[in-house]
Specification:
With 263 residues, the chain is an alpha+beta fold. 20% of the residues lie in helices and 42% in strands. Helix 1 (18-29) runs antiparallel to helix 5.
Length: 263
């Protein structure tokens, strides 16, 4: 597998009001937004400290606002075929995004949707490629970037087998949550990048993105002040970090993770 394959690489918000969403996440995570310049299609890019970390697009009226996590693949078309063979679904694509790569929106056998992206590195120097492999939209060392990727599933054990087969992820620590079952951390290239669990309070299988925050208490205050709703947290998790799970004003679910107080 190539140096990008299996990496969380992009976070995409489908929203009922992208300008309002950009304002909300700007207040909460410090993002700045700019138009992607796609003719005939409103797509905003979110930047954190100069890094592109997320995209925002308007939803069709019948699609509820939601976040979609993309994972990098070496070959988008081959990955779609692997996903279909493993019992998953193909909803959109494969299709090309000029200057970005080839993508598809797919689903696992339990129904959780996610994206895959084959990055276009043709215009990048070897140094830029090496840097992109280490940092990007997902960077656990930087606030405002993707920090954790959580799957809630009707069958997390089968879910792990599926994603491990596609992306090469490995099981890491398993945390006993009592009546909630097991929270299975998974790693990639030696680093824990997410966890898988049962449905919990989720109405259907889904991925939840966590964004890094320098001070979760302060982030909670910003979420509330900007019109969002905090449903859970601050809650300490193994390792000493704190989390909070929330909805933005349009209804999309997301989470923040980091130290309780600003450091």
């Amino acid at each position: 597998m190539g140096q990008f394959h299996g990496n969380p690489c992009w976070y995409e918000l489908t929203s009922g009001n992208t300008p309002a969403a950009a304002t909300f996440y700007g207040r909460v995570l410090g993002w700045t937004g700019r138009d992607a310049g796609v003719p005939g299609f409103e797509y905003l890019l979110a930047l954190s400290d100069g890094d592109m970390v997320a995209g925002m697009a308007n939803a069709d009226s019948d699609v509820p606002p939601h976040w979609l996590i993309y994972f990098a693949v070496d070959d988008c078309d081959a990955a779609v075929q692997m996903i279909l063979k493993a019992g998953g679904k193909d909803f959109v694509g494969p299709a090309d995004i000029p200057g970005t790569g080839r993508y598809a929106i797919v689903g696992d056998p339990q129904g959780a949707r996610f994206g895959i992206l084959q990055p276009d590195m043709s215009q990048m120097t070897p140094e830029q490629v090496a840097k992109a492999a280490e940092t990007g939209a997902f960077d656990q060392k930087k606030a405002g970037h993707g920090n954790w990727n959580e799957l809630m599933s009707t069958d997390p054990e089968a879910g792990f087998a599926f994603y491990s087969g596609i992306f090469g992820w490995q099981k890491s620590t398993a945390v006993d949550m009592g009546e909630m079952g097991t929270y299975q951390l998974f790693s990639h290239k030696g680093a824990d990048i997410g966890g898988m669990m049962g449905l919990g309070n989720a109405p259907l299988p889904c991925w939840l993105p966590y964004f890094g925050a320098n001070g979760v208490d302060a982030a909670i205050a910003r979420i509330t002040a900007a019109g969002g709703t905090v449903h859970h947290g601050p809650h300490e998790v193994p390792g000493g970090a704190f989390i909070a799970i929330a909805q933005d004003p349009q209804g999309a679910w997301f989470a923040v993770v980091g130290p309780k107080e600003e450091s």
